[in-house]
Amino acid sequence: MTCPICGTGFLLDETQAPPFCSVRCKQIDLGRWLDEEIGLPHEGEPDPEMLD
Ligand SMILES: [Zn+2]
């Protein structure tokens, strides 16, 4: 299968962090979600995307 983070092809039996090719890619994905969750609009600037 293909790693959704780096696009590398790998075998599910060989990875330590499915569905990613490596623990590193798993952490990248986790960090990406955390960034979106914690990401706050700049103070004093209303973010139009937050209204959706
Ligand atoms: Zn990867």
TrEMBL record:
Pfam family, any one: YacG
Matching InterPro entries: DNA_gyrase_inhibitor_YacG, Znf_NHR/GATA
* Gene3D superfamilies in the cross-refs: Erythroid Transcription Factor GATA-1, subunit A (3.30.50.10)
Metal-binding keyword on record: yes
Question: Which top-rank group of organisms is this from?
Answer: Bacteria
Please list the GO biological process terms of this entry. Answer: regulation of DNA-templated transcription
Establish whether keyword Metal-binding is in the entry. yes
Q: Which GO terms describe its molecular function?
A: zinc ion binding
Sorted alphabetically, the keyword list is: Metal-binding, Zinc
- Identification of the protein by name: DNA gyrase inhibitor YacG
What is the scientific name of the source organism?
A: Crateriforma conspicua
